[in-house]
Write a structure and sequence with these properties.
The chain has 409 residues and is of the alpha+beta class. Helices cover 45% and strands 16% of the residues.
C-alpha cells in the first residue's frame, strides 16, 4: 500500500500520487529544473531491484507549485520508464491469472471440430456468459465481468488454446484492476471471446474496435531491445513452418500463449540475438537432428529433451547419442529454459517443453515462434492510467490483489 511520507506528498495531486504508486521516487531539490533519472527498469527483475539500482528517480525544484508538479507527473506517466514500472504489475497479474487457470481441472481443451467454446451441462448463462455467435464462436459476459471470468477459474468450461490465450489476456486485466474496477471499467462487448475473426467484429479490447493502438513486433526485435519486463503478458503463438499437409496432428498445429516470465539470461540472449528469428533457425536445426533419430514411444522427445529421462536417454544407440548431444547443446540456450509460456491446457511451461512436445506431435515440420499484435503498452496502459486517476479523484483505488480496496487520502 502507498503510504504518505511527507507533507509534500500529502499535498500531491492524483498524477503525482500515481507516479509514486508506480514506484517513482520523488525528491525535492534546490536546482532550477526537473532532473529525471529514468534508468533501465525494464532490465530489472523487480521494482525493488530497479529502485535499488537508482532507476525511477526524479528531483523536483522546491519552488514548484502543485500545478507544476502535476504537469511534470503527467509527462512522466507517458514515458517508457513508467510503462516498464507498470510492466512489473502486469507480470504479477499475468502470473496470478495463469495460476488460477491452470489450477482449474474443470477448464479443459476441446478439438476445433467440437466448437471453440463449450460451457457443459450448466450452459453459458449459468456461468455468466451469453452467446452472440453460433457453434461456440462468440460469447460475451451476461452479468458482471469478474463473475464471467470466474467460470474459467472454477467452472466447467472447454475451449481450444486460442480462446485459452484470450481468456488469459482478459484474466490478466481482472487481476490488474481488481474485481470492482474490472467490472466498472470494461463493457461486456469489450470482453468478447471466440474465434479471432469473430473478435474483429466486436468492441473487443484484444482485437476489436476498442483495441485502439496496436504494437506490432512479431519477431520481438523491439521488445528484446527494451528488456526483460517488456515481455510480461505478451500474446503470441508457436506455429508450424511447413504447409498443413505436413501436419500429423491438426489439433497441435499451433500453440497460443501469453508470456508469464523470462529469466535474466533468456532476456539477455534475446537482446543479443535480436529476437525470435535466431530461435526459429535453432528450432529448424533441432528438428533436422531429431529427424535423424528414428524410434517410437509415447512422448518420446518430450521425455528425452524436456524430462531428460535417464533410462530412455541411456537406451539410445551410439549414433543417436551423438545427435542427442548436439540437440542438448542447442537447447542449452537460456531462452528454451527461461522463457515461460502459459498455453491452455498445458499450463505454464518453458519454451523448450513446447518445442520438444511438437517434435512428437508433428514430426514432419519445424515450428516458429511469433508475438501477435497487442496493446498492453499503448491503449490498455493508458486506460489503466486513466482508471487509476479517476479512482484517485473519487478517493478510492484498488491494488492488484482482487477486491482489496484502500483510500488514496
Amino acid at each position: 500500500m502507498w503510504v504518505l511520507a511527507s507533507t509534500a506528498q500529502a499535498a500531491d495531486g492524483c498524477a503525482m500520487r500515481l507516479l509514486r504508486e508506480l514506484g517513482w521516487q520523488v525528491e525535492s531539490g534546490a536546482q532550477q529544473g526537473v532532473t529525471v533519472n529514468a534508468g533501465q527498469p525494464c532490465q530489472r527483475a523487480s521494482l525493488q531491484q530497479a529502485q535499488a539500482r537508482g532507476d525511477l528517480r526524479v528531483q523536483v525544484p522546491e519552488g514548484f507549485d502543485a500545478t507544476q508538479r502535476e504537469r511534470m507527473a503527467e509527462a512522466l506517466l507517458q514515458q517508457q520508464a513508467s510503462v516498464c514500472a507498470y510492466a512489473f504489475r502486469l507480470g504479477d497479474a499475468t502470473r496470478a491469472a495463469a495460476r488460477r487457470l491452470q489450477d482449474n481441472p474443470g477448464y479443459r481443451f476441446s478439438a476445433l471440430q467440437l466448437g471453440w467454446i463449450g460451457f457443459g451441462a450448466r450452459g453459458a448463462g449459468a456461468q455468466g456468459w451469453q452467446r452472440f455467435r453460433s457453434f461456440g464462436r462468440g460469447y460475451a459476459p451476461s452479468g458482471s465481468n469478474s463473475q464471467a471470468l470466474e467460470a474459467f477459474y472454477s467452472g466447467r468450461v472447454r475451449s481450444e488454446c486460442g480462446v485459452g490465450r484470450q481468456v488469459a489476456q482478459l484474466a490478466t486485466q481482472r487481476e490488474l484492476y481488481g474485481d470492482a474496477a474490472f467490472d466498472a471499467e470494461f463493457s461486456a462487448g469489450e470482453l468478447s471471446i471466440g474465434t479471432f475473426l469473430t473478435l474483429h467484429d466486436t468492441p473487443s479490447i484484444l482485437l476489436g474496435s476498442n483495441a485502439g493502438e496496436f504494437f506490432a513486433d512479431g519477431k520481438a526485435v523491439r521488445t528484446a531491445a527494451m528488456g526483460r519486463q517488456a515481455f510480461m503478458g505478451l500474446p503470441g503463438y508457436i506455429s508450424h513452418v511447413y504447409d498443413k499437409r505436413y501436419l500429423d496432428d491438426i489439433n497441435n498445429q499451433a500453440e497460443n500463449f501469453v508470456i508469464t516470465d523470462i529469466s535474466e539470461a533468456a532476456a539477455q540472449a534475446l537482446a543479443r540475438h535480436g529476437g525470435f528469428a535466431h530461435y526459429d533457425a535453432l528450432n529448424a536445426r533441432i528438428w533436422e537432428l531429431a529427424r535423424q533419430m528414428p524410434g517410437h514411444g509415447r512422448r518420446r522427445f518430450e521425455r528425452l529433451l524436456h524430462e531428460r529421462d535417464a533410462t530412455l536417454r541411456a537406451a539410445l544407440p551410439a549414433e543417436q547419442q551423438v545427435l542427442l548431444a548436439r540437440i542438448d547443446a542447442l537447447m542449452a540456450d537460456p531462452v528454451y529454459g527461461g522463457l515461460m509460456l502459459y498455453v491452455h491446457p498445458r499450463g505454464v511451461r518453458p519454451l523448450g517443453y513446447h518445442i520438444a512436445r511438437l517434435l512428437d506431435r508433428n514430426p514432419r515440420t519445424p515450428f516458429s515462434i511469433e508475438l501477435t499484435l497487442h496493446n498492453l503498452h499503448t491503449t490498455l496502459y493508458r486506460r489503466w492510467i486513466d482508471a487509476r486517476l479517476r479512482a484517485c479523484a473519487d478517493g478510492i483505488s484498488f491494488n492488484t490483489t482482487r477486491g482489496e480496496k484502500w483510500n488514496w487520502a
